[in-house]
Amino acid sequence: RLLPFSLLAALILTLGLLYLARQQVSMASQIRQGLRRNEFYLEYQPVIELATGRWTGAEALLRWRRRNGEVIYPDVFIPVAENSGLISRLSEQVIAIIEKDMAQFLGDHPLMMIAMNFSASDIQVDTTARRLFDMIERNKLGSGQLMVELTERMLVDPDKARQLMGQLNDHNIPVAVDDFGTGYSSLSYLESMPFDCLKIDRLFVEAIDRQAATSRVVLHIIEMAAALGLNVVAEGVETEGQAQFLREHGVRYAQGWLYSKSLRAEDFIAGYSQQLNYHQLKQ
Ligand code: C2E
Ligand code: MG
Ligand code: MG
Ligand code: MG
Protein backbone atom coordinates (compact mmCIF):
# COMPACT_ATOMS: atom_id res chain seq x y z
CA ARG A 1 0.00 0.00 0.00
CA LEU A 2 3.01 2.23 0.42
CA LEU A 3 4.23 1.73 -3.11
CA PRO A 4 1.43 3.52 -4.97
CA PHE A 5 1.79 6.39 -2.55
CA SER A 6 5.49 6.87 -3.21
CA LEU A 7 4.84 6.50 -6.92
CA LEU A 8 2.30 9.28 -6.66
CA ALA A 9 4.74 11.42 -4.68
CA ALA A 10 7.43 10.83 -7.30
CA LEU A 11 5.00 11.77 -10.05
CA ILE A 12 4.00 14.99 -8.33
CA LEU A 13 7.64 15.86 -7.69
CA THR A 14 8.55 15.23 -11.33
CA LEU A 15 5.67 17.34 -12.55
CA GLY A 16 6.70 20.10 -10.15
CA LEU A 17 10.28 20.05 -11.38
CA LEU A 18 9.13 20.05 -15.00
CA TYR A 19 6.93 23.02 -14.24
CA LEU A 20 9.82 24.94 -12.66
CA ALA A 21 12.12 24.07 -15.56
CA ARG A 22 9.48 25.28 -18.04
CA GLN A 23 9.08 28.51 -16.12
CA GLN A 24 12.84 29.07 -16.30
CA VAL A 25 12.84 28.38 -20.01
CA SER A 26 10.00 30.79 -20.61
CA MET A 27 11.61 33.47 -18.47
CA ALA A 28 14.84 32.98 -20.41
CA SER A 29 13.04 33.56 -23.69
CA GLN A 30 11.35 36.61 -22.18
CA ILE A 31 14.76 37.96 -21.17
CA ARG A 32 15.93 37.42 -24.75
CA GLN A 33 12.91 39.32 -25.98
CA GLY A 34 13.44 42.03 -23.36
CA LEU A 35 17.00 42.48 -24.62
CA ARG A 36 15.74 42.93 -28.18
CA ARG A 37 13.13 45.42 -27.05
CA ASN A 38 15.51 47.38 -24.80
CA GLU A 39 13.44 46.74 -21.72
CA PHE A 40 16.45 46.82 -19.41
CA TYR A 41 17.66 50.00 -17.76
CA LEU A 42 19.87 51.02 -14.88
CA GLU A 43 19.17 52.81 -11.66
CA TYR A 44 21.98 54.46 -9.73
CA GLN A 45 22.21 54.33 -5.97
CA PRO A 46 24.40 57.14 -4.61
CA VAL A 47 27.45 56.16 -2.56
CA ILE A 48 28.13 58.81 0.05
CA GLU A 49 31.09 59.77 2.22
CA LEU A 50 29.94 59.22 5.81
CA ALA A 51 31.91 62.11 7.29
CA THR A 52 30.54 64.78 4.95
CA GLY A 53 27.43 63.38 3.25
CA ARG A 54 29.03 64.11 -0.11
CA TRP A 55 28.10 61.84 -3.02
CA THR A 56 31.19 60.10 -4.33
CA GLY A 57 29.47 58.12 -7.06
CA ALA A 58 26.92 55.37 -7.46
CA GLU A 59 26.30 51.68 -7.88
CA ALA A 60 24.55 50.78 -11.12
CA LEU A 61 21.63 48.42 -10.47
CA LEU A 62 19.87 46.64 -13.29
CA ARG A 63 16.08 46.81 -13.75
CA TRP A 64 13.74 45.20 -16.23
CA ARG A 65 10.54 46.97 -17.19
CA ARG A 66 8.18 44.60 -18.98
CA ARG A 67 5.73 45.81 -21.60
CA ASN A 68 2.90 45.58 -19.09
CA GLY A 69 4.75 48.13 -16.95
CA GLU A 70 5.83 45.64 -14.29
CA VAL A 71 9.39 46.20 -13.03
CA ILE A 72 11.40 43.06 -12.29
CA TYR A 73 14.42 43.08 -9.98
CA PRO A 74 17.77 41.42 -10.57
CA ASP A 75 17.37 38.84 -7.81
CA VAL A 76 14.66 37.30 -10.03
CA PHE A 77 16.18 37.45 -13.50
CA ILE A 78 19.96 37.36 -12.91
CA PRO A 79 19.93 33.70 -11.76
CA VAL A 80 17.85 32.71 -14.81
CA ALA A 81 20.16 34.65 -17.11
CA GLU A 82 23.14 32.91 -15.48
CA ASN A 83 21.67 29.47 -16.02
CA SER A 84 20.62 30.05 -19.59
CA GLY A 85 23.81 31.58 -20.93
CA LEU A 86 22.27 35.02 -21.34
CA ILE A 87 24.26 36.78 -18.69
CA SER A 88 27.05 38.06 -20.91
CA ARG A 89 24.46 39.70 -23.18
CA LEU A 90 22.93 41.34 -20.10
CA SER A 91 26.34 42.52 -18.93
CA GLU A 92 26.98 43.88 -22.41
CA GLN A 93 23.73 45.85 -22.10
CA VAL A 94 24.76 47.15 -18.69
CA ILE A 95 28.03 48.47 -20.11
CA ALA A 96 26.19 50.05 -23.06
CA ILE A 97 23.67 51.71 -20.73
CA ILE A 98 26.40 53.05 -18.44
CA GLU A 99 28.12 54.44 -21.52
CA LYS A 100 24.93 56.12 -22.70
CA ASP A 101 23.77 57.37 -19.28
CA MET A 102 27.04 58.42 -17.82
CA ALA A 103 29.83 58.95 -20.34
CA GLN A 104 29.19 62.66 -20.77
CA PHE A 105 28.59 63.12 -17.08
CA LEU A 106 31.74 61.26 -16.05
CA GLY A 107 33.69 63.55 -18.38
CA ASP A 108 32.35 66.59 -16.50
CA HIS A 109 32.78 65.05 -13.06
CA PRO A 110 36.09 63.24 -13.06
CA LEU A 111 35.93 62.42 -9.36
CA MET A 112 32.77 60.38 -9.53
CA MET A 113 32.92 56.60 -9.54
CA ILE A 114 30.29 54.25 -10.97
CA ALA A 115 30.30 50.67 -9.70
CA MET A 116 29.11 47.81 -11.88
CA ASN A 117 28.21 44.31 -10.71
CA PHE A 118 29.85 41.37 -12.44
CA SER A 119 28.27 37.94 -12.37
CA ALA A 120 30.04 34.62 -11.93
CA SER A 121 30.05 33.97 -15.70
CA ASP A 122 31.68 37.33 -16.35
CA ILE A 123 34.71 35.86 -14.59
CA GLN A 124 34.72 32.66 -16.62
CA VAL A 125 34.56 34.34 -20.03
CA ASP A 126 36.54 37.50 -20.64
CA THR A 127 34.14 39.12 -23.15
CA THR A 128 32.53 41.34 -20.49
CA ALA A 129 35.90 42.62 -19.27
CA ARG A 130 37.01 43.31 -22.85
CA ARG A 131 33.80 45.22 -23.59
CA LEU A 132 34.34 47.27 -20.46
CA PHE A 133 37.91 48.12 -21.47
CA ASP A 134 36.75 49.12 -24.97
CA MET A 135 34.08 51.36 -23.49
CA ILE A 136 36.58 53.01 -21.17
CA GLU A 137 39.02 53.66 -23.97
CA ARG A 138 36.33 54.93 -26.33
CA ASN A 139 35.19 57.46 -23.72
CA LYS A 140 38.65 58.23 -22.36
CA LEU A 141 37.49 57.52 -18.84
CA GLY A 142 40.13 58.10 -16.20
CA SER A 143 41.35 55.80 -13.50
CA GLY A 144 38.84 55.13 -10.78
CA GLN A 145 35.79 56.32 -12.70
CA LEU A 146 34.49 52.79 -12.87
CA MET A 147 34.65 50.05 -10.30
CA VAL A 148 33.73 46.38 -10.59
CA GLU A 149 32.00 44.45 -7.81
CA LEU A 150 32.51 40.72 -7.37
CA THR A 151 30.87 38.69 -4.64
CA GLU A 152 32.81 36.21 -2.55
CA ARG A 153 30.79 33.37 -4.01
CA MET A 154 32.26 34.15 -7.42
CA LEU A 155 35.75 33.42 -6.18
CA VAL A 156 35.28 29.65 -6.34
CA ASP A 157 37.66 29.66 -9.28
CA PRO A 158 40.51 31.65 -7.72
CA ASP A 159 42.81 31.41 -10.74
CA LYS A 160 40.24 32.88 -13.11
CA ALA A 161 39.29 35.50 -10.56
CA ARG A 162 42.89 36.52 -10.03
CA GLN A 163 43.48 36.70 -13.77
CA LEU A 164 40.45 38.95 -14.26
CA MET A 165 41.43 41.15 -11.33
CA GLY A 166 44.91 41.51 -12.77
CA GLN A 167 43.42 42.75 -16.06
CA LEU A 168 41.09 45.14 -14.24
CA ASN A 169 44.01 46.48 -12.21
CA ASP A 170 46.02 47.00 -15.40
CA HIS A 171 43.16 49.17 -16.66
CA ASN A 172 43.01 51.11 -13.39
CA ILE A 173 39.62 49.68 -12.51
CA PRO A 174 39.33 49.09 -8.77
CA VAL A 175 37.62 45.90 -7.64
CA ALA A 176 35.30 45.53 -4.66
CA VAL A 177 34.39 42.38 -2.83
CA ASP A 178 30.60 42.69 -2.66
CA ASP A 179 28.18 41.39 0.00
CA PHE A 180 31.12 40.67 2.24
CA GLY A 181 30.34 38.27 5.07
CA THR A 182 27.67 36.25 3.29
CA GLY A 183 30.03 33.98 1.38
CA TYR A 184 32.67 31.70 2.72
CA SER A 185 35.98 33.27 1.82
CA SER A 186 38.66 33.07 4.46
CA LEU A 187 40.92 35.90 5.47
CA SER A 188 43.93 34.36 3.74
CA TYR A 189 41.88 33.99 0.58
CA LEU A 190 40.85 37.60 0.63
CA GLU A 191 44.42 38.61 1.32
CA SER A 192 45.64 36.80 -1.78
CA MET A 193 43.25 38.69 -4.08
CA PRO A 194 44.07 42.21 -5.23
CA PHE A 195 40.87 43.87 -3.97
CA ASP A 196 40.66 47.63 -3.45
CA CYS A 197 37.38 47.86 -1.65
CA LEU A 198 35.17 45.83 0.65
CA LYS A 199 31.40 46.20 0.80
CA ILE A 200 29.89 45.08 4.08
CA ASP A 201 26.66 43.24 3.37
CA ARG A 202 23.35 44.78 4.36
CA LEU A 203 22.57 41.86 6.71
CA PHE A 204 25.39 42.95 9.02
CA VAL A 205 24.53 46.62 8.82
CA GLU A 206 20.92 45.81 9.63
CA ALA A 207 21.96 44.11 12.86
CA ILE A 208 24.02 47.05 14.14
CA ASP A 209 21.25 48.64 16.18
CA ARG A 210 19.84 45.37 17.39
CA GLN A 211 22.43 42.65 17.95
CA ALA A 212 25.55 43.17 20.00
CA ALA A 213 27.21 40.02 18.66
CA THR A 214 26.75 41.00 15.03
CA SER A 215 27.93 44.52 15.75
CA ARG A 216 31.15 42.97 17.02
CA VAL A 217 31.47 41.00 13.78
CA VAL A 218 31.11 44.28 11.90
CA LEU A 219 33.97 45.70 13.97
CA HIS A 220 36.14 42.72 13.05
CA ILE A 221 35.33 43.18 9.37
CA ILE A 222 36.26 46.87 9.59
CA GLU A 223 39.54 46.05 11.35
CA MET A 224 40.38 43.39 8.84
CA ALA A 225 39.66 45.70 5.91
CA ALA A 226 41.90 48.34 7.47
CA ALA A 227 44.68 45.79 7.94
CA LEU A 228 44.40 44.86 4.26
CA GLY A 229 44.30 48.52 3.21
CA LEU A 230 40.83 48.27 1.68
CA ASN A 231 38.30 51.06 1.37
CA VAL A 232 35.07 50.13 3.10
CA VAL A 233 31.53 50.76 1.88
CA ALA A 234 28.63 49.80 4.14
CA GLU A 235 25.54 48.65 2.25
CA GLY A 236 21.92 49.10 3.19
CA VAL A 237 22.32 51.87 5.78
CA GLU A 238 18.77 52.73 6.85
CA THR A 239 19.09 54.47 10.22
CA GLU A 240 21.09 57.34 11.66
CA GLY A 241 22.18 54.98 14.46
CA GLN A 242 23.81 52.63 11.97
CA ALA A 243 25.49 55.55 10.20
CA GLN A 244 26.86 56.87 13.47
CA PHE A 245 28.23 53.50 14.51
CA LEU A 246 29.93 53.07 11.14
CA ARG A 247 31.32 56.60 11.16
CA GLU A 248 32.66 56.22 14.69
CA HIS A 249 34.45 53.04 13.72
CA GLY A 250 36.17 54.51 10.71
CA VAL A 251 34.00 53.35 7.82
CA ARG A 252 34.34 55.96 5.09
CA TYR A 253 31.55 55.23 2.64
CA ALA A 254 27.95 54.08 2.72
CA GLN A 255 24.91 53.56 0.60
CA GLY A 256 21.38 52.92 1.71
CA TRP A 257 17.87 54.24 1.96
CA LEU A 258 18.88 56.66 4.75
CA TYR A 259 20.62 58.64 2.01
CA SER A 260 18.89 57.63 -1.18
CA LYS A 261 17.20 54.77 -2.95
CA SER A 262 18.44 53.93 -6.42
CA LEU A 263 17.49 56.64 -8.91
CA ARG A 264 16.79 56.86 -12.62
CA ALA A 265 19.78 58.31 -14.47
CA GLU A 266 18.24 61.79 -14.89
CA ASP A 267 17.34 61.98 -11.21
CA PHE A 268 20.76 60.76 -10.14
CA ILE A 269 22.48 63.34 -12.31
CA ALA A 270 20.21 66.12 -11.03
CA GLY A 271 20.74 65.03 -7.42
CA TYR A 272 24.48 64.82 -7.93
CA SER A 273 24.70 68.36 -9.30
CA GLN A 274 22.48 69.67 -6.53
CA GLN A 275 24.55 68.21 -3.69
CA LEU A 276 27.73 69.33 -5.44
CA ASN A 277 26.47 72.94 -5.43
CA TYR A 278 25.45 72.57 -1.82
CA HIS A 279 28.88 71.39 -0.74
CA GLN A 280 30.61 74.07 -2.81
CA LEU A 281 28.47 76.77 -1.19
CA LYS A 282 29.26 75.45 2.26
CA GLN A 283 33.02 75.70 1.70
P1 C2E B 1 24.01 44.23 -4.40
O1 C2E B 1 25.13 44.46 -5.36
O2 C2E B 1 24.38 43.88 -3.01
O3 C2E B 1 23.13 45.54 -4.48
C1 C2E B 1 22.57 46.15 -3.37
C2 C2E B 1 21.11 45.80 -3.25
O4 C2E B 1 20.62 46.34 -2.01
C3 C2E B 1 20.25 46.45 -4.32
O5 C2E B 1 19.16 45.57 -4.61
C4 C2E B 1 19.73 47.71 -3.64
O6 C2E B 1 18.55 48.22 -4.21
C5 C2E B 1 19.52 47.19 -2.25
N1 C2E B 1 19.54 48.26 -1.24
C6 C2E B 1 20.28 49.39 -1.27
N2 C2E B 1 20.10 50.13 -0.16
C7 C2E B 1 19.22 49.45 0.63
C8 C2E B 1 18.65 49.70 1.93
O7 C2E B 1 18.93 50.70 2.60
N3 C2E B 1 17.79 48.77 2.41
C9 C2E B 1 17.48 47.67 1.69
N4 C2E B 1 16.60 46.81 2.26
N5 C2E B 1 17.99 47.38 0.48
C10 C2E B 1 18.86 48.27 -0.05
P2 C2E B 1 18.79 45.17 -6.09
O8 C2E B 1 18.90 46.36 -6.97
O9 C2E B 1 17.53 44.41 -6.04
O10 C2E B 1 19.99 44.20 -6.52
C11 C2E B 1 20.12 42.94 -5.95
C12 C2E B 1 21.40 42.26 -6.44
O11 C2E B 1 21.33 41.99 -7.83
C13 C2E B 1 22.63 43.14 -6.29
O12 C2E B 1 23.05 43.08 -4.97
C14 C2E B 1 23.58 42.52 -7.28
O13 C2E B 1 24.24 41.40 -6.72
C15 C2E B 1 22.65 42.02 -8.38
N6 C2E B 1 22.71 42.96 -9.51
C16 C2E B 1 22.18 44.21 -9.60
N7 C2E B 1 22.47 44.77 -10.79
C17 C2E B 1 23.23 43.87 -11.47
C18 C2E B 1 23.88 43.86 -12.76
O14 C2E B 1 23.84 44.82 -13.52
N8 C2E B 1 24.57 42.72 -13.10
C19 C2E B 1 24.68 41.67 -12.27
N9 C2E B 1 25.38 40.60 -12.66
N10 C2E B 1 24.10 41.64 -11.05
C20 C2E B 1 23.39 42.72 -10.65
MG1 MG C 1 26.82 45.27 -5.73
MG1 MG D 1 26.28 44.41 -2.47
MG1 MG E 1 24.08 42.97 -0.73
From TrEMBL:
Q: Which UniProt keywords apply?
A: c-di-GMP, Cell membrane, Hydrolase, Membrane, Transmembrane, Transmembrane helix
The reply on keyword Chaperone is: no
Q: Which reaction does it catalyse?
A: 3',3'-c-di-GMP + H2O = 5'-phosphoguanylyl(3'->5')guanosine + H(+)
Q: Which residues of the full protein are shown?
A: 231 to 513 of 513
- The EC category is hydrolase
Q: What residues form the membrane-spanning segments? A: 2-21
* Annotated GO CC locations: plasma membrane
Under which EC number(s) is this enzyme classified?
Answer: 3.1.4.52
Which terms does the record give in the GO molecular function aspect? cyclic-guanylate-specific phosphodiesterase activity
**According to the lineage, what is the superkingdom?**
Bacteria
Enumerate the spans annotated as EAL domain.
24-276
Its subcellular locations are:
Cell membrane
Keyword Lyase attached: no
Protein name, please? cyclic-guanylate-specific phosphodiesterase
Its primary localisation, in coarse terms, equals membrane
Q: How does it sit in the membrane?
A: Multi-pass membrane protein
